[in-house]
Amino acid sequence: MTAPLLDIKDLQLGVALGQSIHPLLKSVSFQIMPGEAYGLVGESGSGKSVTSLAVMGLLKKPLAVSSGKILFKGQDLLALPKREMRRLRGNRVAMIFQEPMTALNPLSTVGRQIAEMFVLHQGKSWREAKKLAVEALSNVRVPNPDRRAKSYPHQMSGGLRQRVMIAMALACNPDLLIADEPTTALDVTVQAEVLRLIKELCAERGTAVLFISHDLGVIASICQRVGVMYAGCLVEENETRALFDTPRHDYTRGLLGALPRLGSRSQHGRQRLVDIDSIIADRSKLTDTRFIAPRGTEGSQP
Amino acid sequence: MRLGFNFWLGAGLTALVIFAGVLAPWIAPFDPVLDADLMSSELPPDATFWFGTDAQGRDVYTRILFGAQISLTVGIVSQVINSIIGVTLGMTAGYWGGWWDDLVNGLTNVMLAIPSLIFALAVMAVLGPGLPSLLVALGLTNWSWTCRIARSSTLSLKSQGYVQAAQTLGYGDLRIMFTQILPNMMGPILVMATLGMGSAVLSEAALSFLGLGIQPPFPSWGSMLTDARQLIQLAPWVAIFPGLAIFLSVLGFNLLGDGLRDSLDPHMRTRSP
Amino acid sequence: MTPPLLQVDDLHVRFPISGGGLLGKGRRMLHAVNGISFSLAKGECLSIVGESGCGKSTTALSILGLQEPTEGTIRYRGQPLAGPGAPGRMQRAKAVQMVFQDPYASLNPRQSVRSSLAAPLRLHGVTAGSEIEGRIEAMLKNVGLTPEHATRYPHEFSGGQRQRIGIARALILEPEIVVLDEPVSALDVSIRAQIINLLLDLQEKLGLSYLMISHDLSVVEHMSDRVLVMYFGQIVEEGGWRAIFETPAHPYTRRLIAAIPDPNAALSPPAKEDRHTADRPQLAAHSFVSDGSRAPDVFTAPPSSKLVEIALNHKVRLAATLSD
To answer: Which of A116, B38, C105, C166 is found 20 to 30 A from A96 (Cα to Cα)?
Structure first.
């Protein structure tokens, strides 16, 4: 069995309030294999985004890790000096966000911003980097990459900006791409294109993906393995198909039942949606049980 | 509800000014105008004259207590006038837009381009010196920032769902402005007003200093500073105490404004379950 | 024949956009809505779907009286609701109300639940304190809250509860039509089912007519009786929910449906293909006005085209020349 690319062991983190720490993550452990697309699904406040920030080393005060390990290729990121971490970020581990407008510099052309990645992490000259930037834009299927490289972020549509973000993130061929709700702000048809792009590019390059979303459909269409988070705990983890076919945790069942599914009305007529509170008697006991399915050896294709 | 130290300091200082002004006739040991005695002029602070005496031998402490009346009146009245003008113009301009917005914007820009003290001087020159014209002058000159803030707040609040909801519920424009928009922008307006109270006190001092404000022999902190000008080396207390009074009251208004803003924020008003 | 509850005829909305730069080439008109016609029956849920910028929100705002139509008529029970002869806000308020997308921005943070429900009642002539209290209490129960909630302020509620308050406010004047603007898309997934169930219950209980604006097609399929698909200011397809979801005819409708990240579809792609490529033979020869693969120019009026009925109550937009 291959070693995991990312191995999060018993990660706990919280908000420091004076002397005490208010926990946000209560012991989260999961692994991502090289080239695997792993989905973290959960609602607002479940801790999925802070997990990704912890991996990126971007936790800001008063957020702080209280215990646990984040092993990336066997190296504990939490013990890594800041300089080393900075070298890793954007190079070996890259991230894309929900709103690309806030992550892009409005005063600089997108070509320059992509080129900067090559200059910073690969020591290329600006001349060379600009050429690579145009290439990176064409890789994410931006039409007229030569011309588009000279545009500013505000001149682009949301979908194009997210493509630029992907081009930047994948510029240095990272081992792991963290995508935090990257398509939530986009229209459905654009979302479908961006999802396909992420899926194809990462498969092509063997980039592992940590995909964070509240949308089970999005997760299902891109990930091989899914972890369900609730109140700072990973309550269930399984291969995608198994999770959707046979959810075992009450919360997962509640989530799946709470969504109207396309086609279900024409097949079964309009049925009342499952009220999650009718499945879950006591939300505070939800995190007492966890179902973490062992990694299967059989096909993990989505 | 938790209020910070700054709020209480501000409230304390403001209360002190109000206390001094309102109770001046009873707690002042002397008369501010009539108890002039050249024999006891420029005495340093002692047990009888707590803050010393000025060139005419009047008790500085007494005059500061009575000066508080002027400062309070000027600060509050001018800011009430300013806020009413600024909010009315800014809110209607932001809400209705169109030619009215253009007009208000133009007027605001003109007002901002004229130094407010010069404008106040011009108004005072027309109306003549004295307290009423001082109030009018200061009330007409400082509304432009309030107006801008009211306008921009209105523009952003206008697109909030609850304002649209009020429109669909049949609320009239004025009702929407007063029940939906105004309460939600009171914070910055109140802060502007208290900051303005501070600057109005300073403007009053400046105008009185220039001889256009409160006429001698009646005391205002500004006119007291004018009188102290020649004595600053000889009898520094004549300048220090009115200066300190201005400083502390302006500080008090500002801290109070900040504290009020925080306490008006409904997120601070969480009740215990 | 009695007129329909709501009738929209040939609605156009255009916005003036000032030309770029200091030496702008004058004003251009942005064509937001280009000749929309539809009707809404009593007790029906009609959904308008489409992506951002398609004009669905502008259409809704026109019906609510928050956006003046450039052309066209909107009638409520045969009486004009917009344009000349339109009633004031007061009368319109009793006809149409709205539930907003973002439950955080749609409640006045400085008004308690009671005052945000009582003020509209007072405004509309309910002055007796006991009646106001009674109606607020009943309404809070209707939306699944308790009378004790009335004294609280919006920030003391969760997103789902806020949306319930928003629904209560929309229903307090007992309107016949409720515009639902993406009513669940800002809510947490597990809360959505509760709000959808609530909306369907209320519709049945109070005989409400819903006009829902949404881009979430799975919610649309679940809730709607009829669906309008809008693309750049025009209706490109119109039909019963079954027709739209089982036999979508316009390429754009198909693209929208195919783009939904649906777990079932994602995990079993062949079934999805079968469902949407089943074509109707009589359409094969026609070309559609816009297949949605290219964004049209929003500053010119769209080319002439018309909605053609291809099955009972199922219409699709075809280029005018080809359909004649």
So the answer is: C105
